[in-house]
Amino acid sequence: MPTHSLFPNIQNVLGRSGRSLAGRWRTIVDPYEAGRLSIYGSPWSAGWYREFPFRPGLAEYDFDRSDLLSVPGDWISQYDRLFFYEWTVWYKRCFHASLDEGRIDFVHFGAANYQSRVYLNGKEIGAHEGGFTPFAFEITDKVQDGENALIVGVDATRRADGVPGTQTDWWNYGGITRDVLLLELPTVFIRDYQVRLGDAGQIAGWVQLDGANAEAVATGPVRVRIPELDVDEELTTDPAGRAEFSVAARPSLWSPESPKRYEVTFSSAEDEVSDRIGFRRIEVDGNRILLNGEEIFLRGIAIHEEAPLREGRAFGEDDARVLLGWAVDLGCNFVRLAHYTHDENMVRVADELGLLVWGEVPVYWNLDWENADTLENAKRQLRTMLERDRNRAAFVLCSIGNEAPGTPERLSFMGELAEHVRDTDDDRLVTCALMAAQEEGDMVLDDPMGEHLDVMGCNEYLGWYYGDVETLPNVQWRSKYDKPLIMSELGAGALAGRHGASTEPFTEEHQAAVYSGQIAMMEKIPFLRGLSPWILRDFRSPRRVLPGIQDYYNRKGLVSERGQRKLAFGVLQRWYEKLEEEG
Ligand code: GCU
Fold first, then answer.
1. In this structure, CATH architecture of domain 13-185
2. What phi, psi does 289 have (nearest 5°)?
3. pTM here?
4. Topology of domain 188-269, per CATH?
5. Could you tell me if 258 and 252 are in contact, meaning their C-beta atoms sit under 8 angstroms apart?
6. Where would a tag sit more exposed on the chain, N or C end, judged by fewer CB atoms within 10 A?
7. What's the average model confidence in pLDDT over 335-355?
8. What are the residue ranges of CATH 3.20.20.80 in the chain?
């Protein structure tokens, strides 16, 4: 499905005056896409988004008498009959507007999984593909004075040419899964900016003005202020509305121990936007990771975007604070937000708490590697994540995928993604989750993908899917690359409260034994620079169907879906405490 009419990245939407459309939306479940397609399967004019009957008096649908769904929210967790539903749901929300000459209007979606078609007052305003990245449309010329009807068709169908493809080990949560904002912005507004550490003793950045449409000449003076650092600069934009700057300043650097952020404000003739930004330097030196010039070890945990203590997708600041609070309790300074771009609040709260972030796009397992549209989709998701979170000091690792097959087609596809990250933003390290080969009991990480990476991630399940817990401490690791390794997955399943021998799978004792063995092995890997064990919390998966133990949950969490901490939580927590004490 063509993605079209997308407006470029509007930076820091959460910091702007916007109106949330969160709440109860009217919805129609439409498995055959009858709301858009004729009986011959082609788009037709009498689509439900037009809201006029096929013939007067003969309407066979009525949004205003249909079921309600909460937005933000996946539909899976709201109606039992939708638990396995993966096709189209139509959403309708009315809102009142009073037109004002001096402003332009946008509708901004935090995310909707997977394909979205958006209509306002019966007219299509745009379409978007991708289940985990924000998108916005300008609606200035379609908003009417008084009542407006926003209709969104969300299609969660898994696609072989999609990103991800059709196979995942997570639940396909369809819906408008994050907030929807109506943004009212001045006719010339501050659309985007980046502020970061520059050369020694400098803070550098740029700011981009934009207007109602591409033709608008969006230029004018812009002021940038960082009061705590005595920075107050008047900038002059170029004819394209962009201004760059570099000013003398010596900020306290952001780190997990001291996640210092500064109030940064941009002001133009009609607009003003403020942000809280930390300054840090992330780099690799041989097989070490340096934060602000100091070697760092990443004590992490992997997290899926599921609500901590209820069914369904996590969203918003409250869920972020609970999930990341558990990671802090575990002794983490690092979180892997798997396997897709999480809600913006997760990265903002990590920034505040001092948790380094591995962000990821769902280039997961197998894709249609030779499909140009699939590659463009993956690039767009990467670019959107980098643009959205570019001012978050915590966001240090950009992962271009997970456990892709070792084929030439995949290598070419992901090589282009690595290049695209570097072309878009050179303030993150490029990584992805690879898999090691087993050679006479040793683990060898020589995947050719390693050439393209700054940091190698590796998923391994020694002691669970293969290998014996007892032999773990003797397993040797090696790689032909002199690059840092982050063990991006390891672990074992356990049903909280199920106890027994440490050799019995799915007992808490067995999971704890695997963690102990893994720790003994990892302590001897000379180029290991961090880990993000799989996973913080049990999560829904269509592949995990063992009755009485899994019941459509992947049980590798250190915490159950009810918040019960398993024995392995304590094993990892004690090790992280020891590592932190050793410094
Ligand atoms: C893989 C994959 C995860 C999956 C995990 C598992 O490594 O990356 O998404 O959930 O294994 O088997 O539990």
1. Sandwich (2.60)
2. -105, 130
3. 0.97
4. Immunoglobulin-like (2.60.40)
5. yes
6. C
7. 98
8. 284-582
Nearest CA to ligand 1 atom 4: 169
Residue whose structure tokens are 């309790």: 329
In sequence order, what are the beta bridge partners of 244? 206
Which protein residue's CA is at the shortest distance from atom 12 of ligand 1?
169
Residue 229 CA to ligand 1 center (angstroms) comes to 45
Ligand 1 centroid to residue 169 C-alpha, Å: 6
* Nearest-atom index, ligand 1, CA of 459: 7
Q: Specify the amino acid at residue 493.
A: G
**Contact, 364 vs 403, CB < 8 A?**
yes
Q: Which residues line ligand 1 (CB under 6 A)?
A: 169, 339, 402-403, 459, 489, 534, 554, 556
Q: Residue 334: CB partners within 8 Å, gap ≥ 6?
A: 256, 298, 299, 300, 301, 355, 356, 357, 358, 530, 532
CA distance 538 to 543: 13
Please state, in angstroms and rounded to a whole number, the distance separating the CA atoms of residues 273 and 223: 11
For residue 569, give the H/E element and its range. helix 567-582
378-434 pLDDT, tens digit each: 999 999 999 999 999 999 999 999 999 999 999 999 999 999 999 999 999 999 999
CA of 215 to the centre of ligand 1 (A): 47
For the chain, give every residue range classified as CATH 2.60.120.260. 13-185
CATH architecture under which domain 284-582 falls: Alpha-Beta Barrel (3.20)
- Give tens-digit pLDDT for 394-404: 999 999 999 99
